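Note to self: keep these together.
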Amino acid sequence: MEAKRLSDMTLEQLRLLIREEIQRTSREEHELQYIDGDLSDFPVDQWGSWPEHLSLRREDMYGDEGR
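Structure:
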Protein backbone atom coordinates (compact mmCIF):
# COMPACT_ATOMS: atom_id res chain seq x y z
CA MET A 1 0.00 0.00 0.00
CA GLU A 2 1.35 3.37 -0.92
CA ALA A 3 1.93 5.94 1.80
CA LYS A 4 -1.16 8.06 2.44
CA ARG A 5 -2.25 10.48 5.09
CA LEU A 6 -4.53 8.74 7.57
CA SER A 7 -7.09 11.52 7.23
CA ASP A 8 -7.36 10.81 3.48
CA MET A 9 -8.00 7.06 3.93
CA THR A 10 -11.42 5.43 3.92
CA LEU A 11 -12.60 3.44 6.90
CA GLU A 12 -12.07 0.19 4.98
CA GLN A 13 -8.50 1.21 4.08
CA LEU A 14 -7.81 2.00 7.75
CA ARG A 15 -9.17 -1.38 8.83
CA LEU A 16 -6.99 -3.12 6.28
CA LEU A 17 -3.93 -1.15 7.36
CA ILE A 18 -4.54 -1.99 11.03
CA ARG A 19 -5.09 -5.69 10.30
CA GLU A 20 -1.92 -5.87 8.19
CA GLU A 21 0.09 -4.20 10.96
CA ILE A 22 -1.28 -6.61 13.57
CA GLN A 23 -0.45 -9.60 11.40
CA ARG A 24 3.04 -8.25 10.74
CA THR A 25 3.87 -7.74 14.40
CA SER A 26 2.09 -10.79 15.86
CA ARG A 27 4.25 -13.72 16.77
CA GLU A 28 1.59 -16.24 17.80
CA GLU A 29 -1.70 -17.34 16.27
CA HIS A 30 -3.72 -16.99 19.48
CA GLU A 31 -2.96 -13.25 19.64
CA LEU A 32 -4.91 -12.79 16.40
CA GLN A 33 -7.78 -14.92 17.75
CA TYR A 34 -7.92 -12.75 20.88
CA ILE A 35 -8.12 -9.59 18.76
CA ASP A 36 -11.02 -11.13 16.83
CA GLY A 37 -12.84 -11.75 20.12
CA ASP A 38 -12.06 -15.44 20.73
CA LEU A 39 -11.46 -15.87 24.47
CA SER A 40 -11.61 -19.69 24.52
CA ASP A 41 -7.95 -19.95 25.55
CA PHE A 42 -8.09 -17.15 28.15
CA PRO A 43 -6.51 -18.42 31.40
CA VAL A 44 -8.91 -18.85 34.32
CA ASP A 45 -7.90 -19.41 37.94
CA GLN A 46 -10.14 -21.53 40.16
CA TRP A 47 -9.86 -20.48 43.80
CA GLY A 48 -12.76 -22.50 45.15
CA SER A 49 -15.92 -21.27 46.82
CA TRP A 50 -16.33 -18.16 48.97
CA PRO A 51 -15.91 -18.65 52.72
CA GLU A 52 -19.31 -19.10 54.42
CA HIS A 53 -18.70 -16.26 56.90
CA LEU A 54 -17.72 -13.73 54.20
CA SER A 55 -20.09 -10.78 54.04
CA LEU A 56 -19.76 -8.15 51.33
CA ARG A 57 -22.49 -5.89 52.70
CA ARG A 58 -21.52 -2.23 52.90
CA GLU A 59 -22.38 -2.10 56.60
CA ASP A 60 -20.10 -5.03 57.35
CA MET A 61 -17.17 -3.68 55.35
CA TYR A 62 -17.32 -0.05 56.51
CA GLY A 63 -18.93 -0.21 59.92
CA ASP A 64 -21.52 2.17 61.33
CA GLU A 65 -20.34 5.18 59.35
CA GLY A 66 -21.08 3.51 56.01
CA ARG A 67 -18.05 5.00 54.30
